[in-house]
Design brief:
Elements (H helix, E strand, L loop, with lengths): L9 H20 L5 H20 L3 H8 L7 H8 E6 L12 E8 L2 E8 L5 H6 L7 H16 L4 E7 L6 H5 L2 H14 L4 E10 H5 L6 E5 L3 E3 L3 H8 L6 H8 L3 H6 L5 E3 L10 H17 L6 H13 L8
Parallel strand pairs: 3-4, 4-5, 5-6, 5-7, 6-8
Antiparallel strand pairs: 1-2, 2-3
Helix pairs in contact: 1-2, 3-11, 4-13, 6-8, 10-11
Length: about 325
Amino acid sequence: MVSHYLDFERPIADLEAKIEELSKLSDQAGAGALDSEISALRSRAAILRSESYAKLDTWQKAQVARHPERPHCVDYIAGLIDEFVELRGDRRFGDDQAIVGGLGRFRGEPVLVIGQEKGHDTTTRIKHSFGSVRPEGYRKAVRLMDLAERYNLPVISFVDTAGAYPGIGAEERGQGEAIARSIERCLTLATPMIATITGEGGSGGALAIASANKVMMLEHSIYSVATPEAASSILRFAREDIPKLAEAMKITAQDLIKLKIIDRIIPEPPGGAHSDREGTIETVGDAIEEELRGLIGLSPDAIRQQRAERFYAIGRTGLS
């Protein structure tokens, strides 16, 4: 059972609280005493969850994308990558744990994995800076992509960040240059690269490891030039207008596939990725495997050309 409920999930939370209460009473009353009532409530909760998630608006999707129980980079690595060996440090300044990366095997094949990690509790969120990457994190990503090219390894990236780290120290160490170098390395990589936006894809902080041959998004994830809250502050919108602004920004997977900014939407279970973490991870793995199959065997020049054409095509209208 999910332990954290969003505002629009309150009716579901109430039903599941009743189910839990009846289950305890059933244990006291004897086996099977309240099974029919519990079964009816579970069916009702499942229907309500499915109906709620079938009609989410943009702001609700943003909340789901940020759900604290949603699977994160370390969960995808644990579920999909065998023999994972983490590689740390940028060989210049230090190691930024907002970026996790290393070598492993994806369904039997050697790969290099890079991803942003937000953390699941107070300790890990501080360790991973809530997924906000500093310059040394992006320089670590570049170092790992260099390694992937040297050994002809496909690159799999998991994107989940509200944006790059905004502190003074990051700016002093060249945040903008580090992001630009990481984007450049993605675009010039001679091996296939698949990026999956698993939660939030925020600004250049996300694009730094998402400039891939194929870009996929989970059904209830978001991808934007800035968070709706940041855009509201910049444009001086009232806080209550943030949901309308989010809608206008076209940040959902459904919006972005129409604009050809992403290539594929990965379905989530009813109730979102956090309601079935293992199933979601397996579904993401299937999508990655399918997309990689279409790129393996292409020459380095063909891989670069496909990636370049993909990004050149964004925004074209057909007008001369």
